[in-house]
Design brief:
By secondary structure, the protein is mainly alpha-helical. The chain is built from six helices and two strands. It has a two-stranded antiparallel ribbon.
């Protein structure tokens, strides 16, 4: 089995000769899962305030708003970097597709949002919620990395190593959170 990921698809010409960005394959949308999980971890760590009022519902809304905004900005930048001349319809269709392709980033932030909402409803303490959230997101990064690597053709051993590399990002956030606070 090949150890290297498969090559990316090239833009296909649309009606009128203008290329549309390629539709994302299954492995391409998984990028958003990793990115959204890292974003949610960073926000969870940053919103944890020693000695301040604990506001889990406020924190959950900021994680969701930031993930959504980041997804929209990422989709917009992809669209603008591949901008082609053409009719308004030929500009809006790829733009809408570029925005839609960012849904995995938002979905990947939902475990953190749900954890914070549950913390608010149950009255959980901030330190415990932050610790559990960062550990959960680190495990999710391992899962995303391993799953994506297997999906694109890596062998199990290599895929698990890639999962560990992704989990190392989560561990780096945990270490940074401990050192900064």
């Amino acid at each position: 089995m090949n150890e290297q990921p498969q090559p990316q698809h090239q833009p296909q010409p649309a009606a009128g000769g203008h290329p549309h960005p390629p539709r994302r394959r299954g492995t391409d949308w998984m990028f958003g899962g990793v990115y959204g999980t890292v974003l949610a971890s960073g926000l969870l760590a940053a919103l944890h305030r020693e000695g301040g009022d604990y506001t889990p519902f406020y924190d959950a809304s900021w994680v969701l708003v930031t993930a959504t905004t980041a997804g929209l900005a990422h989709g917009y930048s992809h669209h603008m970097s591949a901008h082609q001349r053409g009719s308004a319809l030929h500009r809006w269709q790829p733009f809408a597709r570029a925005l839609w392709n960012e849904w995995p980033m938002i979905v990947a932030a939902l475990p953190t949002v749900l954890l914070l909402v549950l913390a608010g409803l149950a009255g959980w303490d901030e330190y415990g919620v932050t610790s559990v959230g960062l550990a959960l997101n680190t495990a999710l990064l391992f899962a995303w990395g391993s799953f994506v690597a297997l999906r694109v053709g890596y062998r199990l051993h290599s895929a698990l190593l890639i999962g560990l590399a992704d989990a190392a990002i989560g561990l780096a956030i945990i270490v940074a959170n401990a050192l900064i606070k």
